[in-house]
Specification:
alpha/beta, six-stranded parallel β-sheet, eight-stranded mixed β-sheet, 2 domains, Dihydrodipicolinate Reductase, domain 2, globular, about 350 residues, Rossmann fold
């Protein structure tokens, strides 16, 4: 399998290229970046034969898969062109900037009969996987509410580029991960989305802090608290059910489940000990310092296997479409001050 990695930024260099190159039978045949010096540098660093500044030229080569690591507002255009040329598509989140674009991608993929996978790597955190299994198997009863928190710094530590600072801001940066997890955990049909917040200071011109509230058909609720206005990095989900509760610290790969009992000092100490051990293991192995990037490997490997075995991708385009719909509905809700019915967006 030959892969073209489009975009030579941090996520390509830290995740996509090294993961693809570690999979037997997979060759990164080319890289693309509009900055020719960067494309040339990355091709030399990773021993890749070809580099381009025009993704359209690269897609004409004999490649199997296009791996899209470019700024969010370019995802849909590149994915559509890749699909039309019969290439499988792996794309970083979000799939698109709005539902119209996302549907155009899905139409192109379906028409060309190629596979599409969107990278929501936080699904692959072991603690999140365990929480998903516990919630979906009914261990905490019926979901009553979920509260997810994503408090991060402005993404200057990730990239010095300014493309993230468009109107969607924090909502379009880490928001898709949080929204995806909430939708993934709850099998009920989403009905309405409402949002408050926006440009916290009034001077940025983009969303820096937002609360997104979702109501599902079974009357369960979910809230995503998303912010760039902190010096911390906090990513968590608290799931409240009729028969119990699960708290998941996603950053530290840890979860804690309770079933009605009042926490005693002993249970609290045991919980803190398990969390400390989990964190210590990550520090000793060095995995802790890689952050969420370390969970790209499972997604990419599962997707390659899905293509080879003609099976469904680990994360589908339809799931990514719903994440985009929630983001679009949240933006509309901010503007008009009312809840938005998701079906009106779709």
């Amino acid at each position: 399998m030959k892969v073209c990695v489009i975009g030579c930024g941090a996520v390509a260099r830290r995740a996509h290229i090294p993961v693809f190159q570690s999979i037997p039978g997979v060759e990164v045949a080319s890289v693309v970046d509009t900055d020719e010096s960067l494309a040339k540098q990355v091709s030399k660093e990773f021993g890749i034969k070809e580099y381009y500044t025009d993704y359209r030229r690269a897609l004409r080569d004999d490649i199997t898969l296009a791996s899209i690591c470019t700024p969010s507002f370019t995802h849909a255009e590149i994915a559509i062109q890749a699909a039309k040329l019969g290439k499988h598509v792996l794309v970083e989140k979000p799939l698109a900037m709005n539902v119209k674009e996302a549907k155009e991608v899905l139409n192109a993929v379906n028409h060309s009969n190629v596979q599409l996978c969107v990278v929501f790597n936080y699904r692959m955190v072991p603690a999140v996987q365990q929480v998903h299994e516990r919630v979906r198997s009914g261990n905490i009863g019926r979901i009553v509410s979920m509260v997810a928190t994503s408090h991060t710094q402005f993404p200057v530590s990730w990239t010095r580029s300014t493309w993230l600072y468009h109107y969607g801001g924090a909502l379009d940066d880490f928001g898709p991960h949080i929204i995806d997890l909430l939708l993934w955990l709850n099998p009920s049909k989403l009905e309405t989305v409402s949002a408050v917040g926006g440009d916290f200071t009034g001077n940025f011109g983009f969303i820096s802090h937002i609360y997104v509230a979702m109501q599902f058909h079974d009357t369960s609720l979910a809230i995503a608290d998303i912010s760039w206005l902190t010096d911390l990095f906090t990513v968590s989900i608290d799931v409240h059910g009729t028969a119990g509760r699960i708290f998941c610290d996603i950053k530290d790969n840890y979860h804690f489940e309770t079933h009605g009992q009042v926490n005693s000092p002993i249970t609290e100490l045991a919980s803190a000990t398990r969390k400390s051990i989990s964190k210590l293991k990550g520090i000793v192995t060095g995995e802790f310092f890689k952050g969420g990037i370390r969970y790209h490997s499972q997604t990419i490997r599962q997707y390659v296997r899905a293509i080879e075995e003609n099976k469904k991708p680990p994360i589908s385009g339809d799931e990514a479409l719903m994440v985009t719909a929630v983001s679009e509905a949240a933006k509309q809700s901010l503007k008009i001050g009312k809840a938005i019915h998701v079906q009106d967006i779709l």
